[in-house]
Input
Amino acid sequence: MNKFEKNTRRKERYHVHLLAALVVSLLTVNLAIQFWPDIQKENKGLVFDAKGQNVIQMEEIEQTRQEKKKPAPPIPAPPIVVPDDVVLDDLEIEITDTSLTLEDPGNDTEVVEGTNTGDATVAARADKSPSPVRISIPEYTREARRKGIRARILVEVLVNERGRVSEARITELYLLNKDKTEREQVSELGYGIEEATLVAARKHQFSPARQNNKRVSSYVTLTFEIGV
Output
């Protein structure tokens, strides 16, 4: 038997073997389906115990909400310091009633209470003394500034019925140290200080004095401090 004949027989047997294997496979599957046990029939009548089963309980978690805090109140603005139009750093004004009751005024018409001086009445002791409504600051002259003069000046003024200064005269002069703890009375200051002080005193305006609810003229004393 040559090689060609062997190959021909193998090809013929191959088809036979393939068909035989297919038949056997189909029979095996058919038998498995026919004789497969019925699970529903076998489990019929069985009682299942659920005690051993794990129970999972799920709870719904509420969503948390964060409350917004109210904003803090705004910080108050710092006070704004507004400078005054009139600076009184170098000036101290003390208004006092310097009129004195004289036991025997004699013929001095300026100190007699209720005496008429021209068209005005000068009250030695008015019910209400004049009160300033406008003040003036003496000029600190260049010469006094160079010398470093510090002084206190008392000026007696006569305030008329219209509240204007009709008379002004210097009554006392003092030299002061730097912290005003010591003073020295002098007869004059010089350097134009007295003249500047009298000019400032005459520029003052007052609410006039009153005697028996009537406007009267009256004397008051102003105190000026220069260079302090």
Notes: Residues 26 and 180 are 134 Å apart (CA to CA). The first strand starts at residue 115 and ends at 117.
